[in-house]
Amino acid sequence: MDDLPAQRLLKIWQLRLSMAERGVINPPPDIIPHVRQLVAGLSALDPEAPVRLERQGERMNFIAAETGMVIDSIPLFMSSSDDDLFNVHGC
C-alpha cells in the first residue's frame, strides 16, 4: 500500500472515533483506546508527513514513514453490520 498523508488518515480516524463515541457505530471496546492514541499520534505529525500502513497478522500498524516510528497498532476485526465502517481495511 502506498504511504498516505497524515492529514488524510487523521480526518478518517477522527470521524470514526466521533461516530464510535456517539454510538453511531459500535466497534469492540478494546479498539477505542487504540483509535484515540492513533488520532493523537497523527495530530502530532506534519499534515503532509507520509504514513505507511502495514498489516502484521491480525493487526494494522500505522508507521511514520520518515522515522519508522509505529504510531499505533490496531487489531483488525470483521463485522457484518454498520461497524464495517470502523474496519481498518476501509482506509
Helix-strand layout with pairing:
Layout: E1 4-5, H1 6-21, H2 32-44, E2 50-56, E3 59-64, E4 70-75
Antiparallel strand pairs: 1-2, 2-3, 3-4
Which key phrases capture this entry?
single chain; 91 residues; 2 helices; 4 strands; 32% helix
How many distinct beta strands? 4
| Count of distinct structural domains | 1
Q: What is the subunit organization of this protein?
A: single chain
Class by alpha and beta content:
alpha+beta
**Sequence stretches where pLDDT stays below 50 over 5 or more residues:** 82-86
What are the secondary-structure elements, in order, as H or E? EHHEEE
Approximately what portion of the residues adopt beta-strand conformation?
A: 15-25%
Which geometry do the CA atoms define? globular
> Distance N terminus to C terminus?
10 Å
Strand order of the largest sheet: 1-2-3-4
Q: What proportion of the residues is helical, as a percent range? A: 25-40%
Mean of the pLDDT scores? 86
Strand count, sense and barrel status of the largest sheet are:
4 strands, antiparallel
- Spatial extent as radius of gyration: 12 Å
Number of helices: 2
